[in-house]
Amino acid sequence: MKKLIFIFILLISSSLLLAQEMYHSNAIYVKYVDNKEAEVQSNSSEYSVYSAFDFSKYKLTNHTKKADSLLNELSKVKKLTFNYPIDPMKMANLFTKKPGVEYAEPIPKSYTFADETNDPDLNQLYHLYLIDAFEAWKLMTGDNVLIGIVDTGIDFDHEDLKNQVWYNPSENGQDEFGNDKATNGIDDDENGFIDDWRGWDFGSESGFDNDPTYGGDHGVHVSGIAAAQVNNSIGTAGTSPRANILAVKIGPDFGLDNSVYNEYEGLLYAAMMGSDVINCSWGGTGFSQTNSIVVKTAKELGALVVAAAGNSNRNQAFYPASYDGVLSVASSADDDVRSGFSNYNTRVDVSAPGTFIYSTIPDNKYDFKSGTSMASPVAAGAAAVLRSQFPDYTAQQIKSLIMVNTDNIDELNPNFEGLVGSGRLNLYKAITRNKNIAINLKEDIITSDDPTGLIKAGSKVKLDLVFENILDDLENLQIVIGNDKFVEVEVSNSIFDFNNIPKGGVFSITDDIEIIIPEDTPENYNFNIKISAYHNGEKIQDFYVNFIANPSYLNLHNDEIAMTVTSNGNHGYNDFSENIQGLGFQYKEAIDLMFEGGFMITQKGKEYVADGIRNRSSVKDRDLFSLEKISRKDYGTFSVINSKFTDKVEGGFGNFDSLALGLEVKHEAYLFNDDDLKHSILIRYILHNKYSFDVDSIYAGLFYDWDISEGGQKDVIRFDTIDYTGYAEIVEDANSPVIGVHLHSELPFNCYAIDNAAFQEEMGIYDGFSEAEKQMTMTSGIARLSSRPNKDGSMVISAGPLFIPAGKKTEILFSINASNNEADIRESVRKLDEKLKSFDLQSKVEIIREINIEKLYPSPVATNKTVEAYISSQSLTEVEMKIFDYRGRVIIDLGAKRLVTGYNPVEFSTAGLSQGAYYFGVVKDGELFSYPFTVINE
Predict the structure, then answer these.
(1) What kind and span of H or E run contains 41?
(2) Catalytic residue at 44?
């Protein structure tokens, strides 16, 4: 499963990177090992198969064998369009398992955001003075180059742009019949695009066309920053005086929504058409294998891709900016301080002015805009100047030339050292080659000594490095292995010397660097190990090697069953929806039976559910915070994983911190090695109310999206309300696994069987899982007992309402059981119940022994029936008995009773009680002992 991706134009927005409708609901990318297998799988009535990138008609010259190889790789990527809505993440996961498939991934939707502000009082061209552009221009001697602006389109009539547009010579002029090639309806240059005489439109609502005229003004502004005409006595000036603009439109025709379309097809087109530089003022936080191949292909075709680092004010990777070979650009202001909106991370290569940049907008107008969208074309224009000046330099050499000739701004950004690139762009230094020594870290290989391959606290990690010399020959090079900024590691060898490395030479460090991870490393800590390069004693570059250590998940497994448990309540995987970190749920030969699972807790009426399950945008909620390091202990006959979490911590950043419940949850997962219990996992939650007041109406439970069949399409979820068990199975396949999730605790039972593929008129989760939907499925009692066939089902099983007095704890026990038939699961549940009578659980819940309500029978009970209660007492004592509703209000006062030492049978009637959840309570000296029960209508 590949990473979640959302692409958007990088203008500052208060929404900043909110995940919305992440993927196309009826299509995925699939890369096949060969086209033969694609043809086999294309014979389906459920979906159509198309080439994801059709470049078979391009006439390519002067390109490398590697470019041919990458184009061949892209030819294996197909776009599968389904006849019905799908869960794209799950469908991609399904196709990844098919024979002949290298990988499959969902196709991201793309978005733009609204414009920022403008401020006409600022110096209109400060960014050109700041990067010394005017001085650099005096030295230019090269020819014009082509810069591809992949954006929302261009204003071809703008006074400052009309003379900068590149017109395709093969699609202009007259054909052999005297017709205008621009309108003759013939693909004159045989590149697969008919009449692309001035670029192409990949964002048209009517489909691809040859009119990349702007829909929104973003692309017009970006075009002017990069290449508005210089010395025409009109308006502004672009960063590059000798760049022609290839217009590649990926925005809608009318700019009425914030979507962009087919952006990587547009990027590939720009490269295919010979762009020397390609500017991408858009991006997203998700990695895509397919899109990374597109970027590699563009590089091999000779283009330097320049991309914005993102506007989220976060330390995060951003794509395409963070793909290998791309020049990643952060934004700075006129004082060289990082723009407050700009992303920052170790993948950023350079900073450039991006705050209040004056440039072209439609209808011969000009305006100021801010964003990394503006910083990127400043850098792209500079790259175009250098490509003109040094035509023999490769894309990587131009990138390195820019990076080693910046102005250092670390002192002005003391908290962002190493996170905003090598410095602020300086075009004059680059064109004069003030420094012409540069290397590139081609590859870092990290290997853990842990048998699982995980990098844990205390692990020894081997680090191998491969470098390439990019610019001039190197005489005396020294590589120094540094450390992480916040968590110091122990490094075995740290200094390595190299001599006389020619330009283009590759050199490496192997089997010499060992890193020991500290025992006190925080969970999921992202190490950034600094590596510095010195030439003749002068520092030339810093690099960073990143890896995650001390993961917040562990595995339970025996020879029959396995499941991953996380520190904050999730099961199966730690990283929905990539589903790389973990085992999922496995039973015998069946693997990946669980697509997503975990704990949920809410208070009825609060419109908030604390969990780590997907949300309304199909992105994992992060409401639960670990309170202690997850641990596992093995006791021979059983193993247990322990963790503790809450939804509110000091400085917490949950989705609804002001609504957080604040209960502390102890989580225990038990796996037994007894032959008759090998197929079961016991899940225990201890809810601790640490407040000085009572809490009521609490519901706690589990969500599971099972995949018993491929992709879960044939799964059916159903509940047995007598046994308090939910089943996931393939109804027509008696030999397939059956999963049973059982509530062991004598608590009010709630269940809901979800049709994942239901849309609009019904509750489904392919379109996301909202807070309201989560609470409804948890708190509606016995609400929906079965999912429908061919809808891909999920289950919610919960206990509640729960009343937890101040300072007290309550316990909920579930189990997950696997077999090939329902009868065996019922037997497993029975044996677990027997086991619990003699088995000492690891954590002790405080139990008041003086009075204990042992049992109510029957439960649930119909209205106007008699309930038998059994109360044990340690002494002869007077008590009061009451019936409470789920909010703790007294509904019926049953009066006083004298309890004898030992066992006390009591009867009461449900007459007058409507259907719902209640508590039978015994009050002694102001202290309440309660037992929940449910009333149902016959």
Answers:
(1) helix 35-41
(2) no
DSSP assignment of 451-497 equals TTS---TT-EEEEEEEEEE-SS-EEEEEEEE---SSS--EES--EEE
- Please, are residues 217 and 137 in contact by the beta-carbon 8 Å criterion? no
**What's the CA gap between 329 and 424, in Å, rounded?**
10
**Cα–Cα–Cα angle for 133, 135, 140, nearest 5°?**
85
Residue 720 Cα distances to 705, 726, 779, 830, 938, angstroms: 18, 6, 17, 15, 17
C-alpha separations of 709 from 84, 249, 674 in Å: 18, 42, 28
CA 286 vs CA 90, 202, 283, 289, 880: distances in Å: 17, 21, 9, 10, 60
> Under a CB-based contact definition with an 8 Å cutoff, are residues 654 and 59 in contact?
no
Task: Count how many Cα atoms sit within 13 Å of the Cα of residue 710 in the half-sphere of its side chain.
Answer: 7
C-alpha 798/C-alpha 726 separation (Å) is: 11
Q: What is the DSSP string of 285-298?
A: S---HHHHHHHHHH
The CA distance from 517 to 149, in Å, is: 45
Cis previous bond, 400, omega within 30: no
- Asked if 225 contacts 378 with a C-beta cutoff of 8 angstroms, the reply is yes
Average pLDDT, the chain: 89
Task: Region of 849 please: left (phi>0), alpha (psi -120 to 50) or beta.
Answer: alpha
Length of the chain: 938
Q: Round to whole Å and give the CA distance between 654 and 650.
A: 11
Beta bridge partners of 259: 111
**201 and 211 Cβ atoms separated by less than 8 Å:** yes
Contact criterion met (CB below 8 Å) for 380 and 279: yes
Res 171: pLDDT = 93
Contact by Cβ (8 Å): 342, 322: no
Residues 352 and 308: beta-carbon distance below 8 Å? no
Global confidence as pTM: 0.80
Q: What is the DSSP letter of 726?
A: E
Structure tokens at 543: 């690099």
Which of 937, 663, 640 lies closest to 805, judged by CA?
Answer: 663
Which are the contacts of 925, defined by CB distance < 8 A and separation ≥ 6? none
Annotated catalytic residue, options 127, 158, 218, 571: 218
pLDDT at 114: 34
Two tokens, residue 641: 């994983």
Handedness of CA 35, 37, 43, 46 (dihedral sign): negative
Q: 115, 132, 151, 253: which is the annotated catalytic residue?
A: 151
For residue 57 the two structure tokens come to 């008609």
- Burial class of 804 by CB neighbour count within 10 A (0 to 12, 13 to 18, 19+): middle
SS3 (DSSP) at 271: helix
Cα separation of 394 and 405, whole Å? 17
- Catalytic-residue membership of 110: no
Would you call 373 helix, strand, or coil by DSSP?
Answer: helix
- What pLDDT, on a 0 to 100 scale, did the predictor assign at position 655? 45
904, 871 Cβ separation under 8 angstroms? yes
Q: What is the 3-state composition of the chain as percent helix, strand, coil, each rounded to the nearest 5?
A: 15, 40, 45
Token pair of 78 as six digits: 């197909």
Strand, coil or helix: 668: strand
Residue ranges of the chain with pLDDT lower than 70? 1-22, 55-63, 109-123, 256-258, 650-657, 759-761, 846-849
Strand-by-strand arrangement of the 282-284 sheet: 259-260, 110-111, 7-9, 282-284
Distances (CA, A) of 828 to 679, 680, 742, 835: 8, 7, 10, 10
* Widest distance between CA atoms in the chain: 112
Is residue 373 flagged as an active site residue?
A: yes
pLDDT of residue 761: 63
Q: How far apart are CA 181 and CA 191, in angstroms?
A: 14
- With contact defined as beta carbons under 8 Å apart, do 199 and 212 qualify? yes
- Among the listed residues 328, 351, 359, 373, the single catalytic one is 373
Q: Which residue has the tokens 């009826």?
A: 26
Is-cis flag, bond preceding 320, omega within 30? yes
